[in-house]
Write a structure and sequence with these properties.
Layout (H helix, E strand, L loop, with lengths): L12 H26 L3 H5 L9 H6 L9 H9 L1
């Protein structure tokens, strides 16, 4: 499998299936981690877990962040 995705050969269906399993597994792990960490259902997370860029204000609305702040605020919270 060392050359899966190599630009020097044509991707086979076996290659594609292998890569899809890896990406799918990583996606499910991500959804589970966000779901548990933020207290959201997997279905809620999957509504926005599609690779899009989410800005701070939208992240707060989606319950992915508690507040918007800078490095100083993050340090205050971490040291509290």
């Amino acid at each position: 499998y060392k050359d899966v995705g190599s630009p020097f050969r044509v991707m086979t269906e076996e290659d594609r299936s292998y890569l899809q399993r890896i990406v799918g597994g990583a996606y499910e792990t991500f959804v589970e981690a966000v779901s548990k960490g933020r207290g959201l259902s997997a279905e809620e997370v999957k509504r926005f877990a599609d690779g899009r860029i989410i800005l701070g204000s939208e992240a707060v609305k989606l319950k992915l962040a508690d507040e918007i702040g800078g490095v100083e605020r993050a340090a205050q919270l971490a040291l509290a």
